[in-house]
Write a structure and sequence with these properties.
Blueprint lengths: L9 H28 L11 H13 L7 H32 L1 H14 L7 H9 L3 H25 L3 H9 L4 H39 L4 H10 L3 H29 L7
Helix pairs in contact: 2-10, 3-4, 3-6, 3-8, 3-9, 5-6, 6-8, 8-9, 8-10, 9-10
Main location: membrane
InterPro entries: MetI-like (IPR000515), MetI-like_sf (IPR035906)
Keywords: Cell membrane, Membrane, Transmembrane, Transmembrane helix, Transport
Length: 267
């Protein structure tokens, strides 16, 4: 297909490919049901989709381990929303400052490079000792998990701005604020959204791990308790909803990106 014949709207590509995605998803569920029905694996190892659907209904209506499924979902969503938004609120400005001022870069970069290789899960024992098993420790873990990627994506976006654009702004006599809102911010927004989309996946990984270790509610806690009781169907309920919610968040971020960063054709 030639360049001139390619669709210019990414939205049209998404809408055209949606039936294919749904067909593949349905085929995967049907294959899962067939494999489970043939008992190639013990039911405790691979519950069928019908079993998982029943457990979704049961955990929603009757609850599991003292909480209903909506309550566990709400607990996880609350933690990830607060921690992730806090990381965005801190990481994006810090990334701008590190890319703009060498002194800020020299002050923060050594700490960033020191902590970045440390697995975020290594922070869990320290956070639990300092703040207990309450909400603060889990929110802080999400914050520390996603902060580096947001700083680095923002800093990289600022540094990638062509020098010619900034020189052109100087020629036209734009004020610093005009340069920021007219050139810098529009150029960096795609990188910020990319960092957010990567960060939200990392945030879910850290949240579920924290809930499995130090929480009494949330999808991670539900998975941990159900696994200990060999309630594999309930484990799959948690996995399914983590995947669905993560996918929904990705769709929301892409939709916002298409609205905000419409000039790039990304999202």
């Amino acid at each position: 297909m030639g360049i001139l014949n390619r669709p210019t709207s990414r939205r049209s590509v998404i809408s055209r490919d949606t039936p294919v995605s749904w067909a593949v998803a349905v085929a995967g569920i049907l294959l899962w049901q067939v494999v489970a029905s043939l008992h190639w694996f013990p039911s405790v190892a691979l519950p069928s989709p019908l079993r998982v659907a029943h457990d979704i209904w049961a955990t929603t209506v009757y609850g599991y381990s003292g909480h209903t499924l909506p309550e566990d979902i709400a607990a996880s969503l609350g933690r990830i929303t607060v921690g992730f938004l806090a990381a965005v609120a801190v990481g994006v400005p810090v990334g701008f400052l590190m890319a703009t001022y060498r002194g800020v870069f020299l002050a923060i970069d050594p700490w960033l490079q020191f902590f970045r290789p440390v697995p975020p899960l290594a922070y869990i024992p320290v956070l639990v000792i300092w703040f207990g098993i309450g909400e603060l420790s889990k929110v802080l873990l999400i914050f520390f998990c996603t902060l580096p990627i947001l700083i680095l994506s923002t800093m990289g976006g600022v540094r990638a701005i062509p020098e010619t654009r900034l020189r052109l702004a100087a020629v036209f006599g734009l004020t610093p604020w005009q340069r920021f809102f007219g050139i810098v911010l529009p150029s960096v927004l795609p990188d910020i959204f990319t960092g957010m989309r990567v960060g939200i996946g990392i945030a879910w990984t850290c949240l579920v791990a924290a809930e499995m270790i130090a929480a009494q509610s949330g999808l991670g806690a539900m998975i941990e308790i159900a696994g200990g009781e060999l309630r594999t169907g309930v484990v799959f309920v948690g996995i399914v909803f983590i995947g669905l919610i993560g996918y929904a968040m990705e769709v929301v971020l892409r939709t916002i990106e298409r609205r905000v960063v419409f000039w790039t054709g990304k999202g």
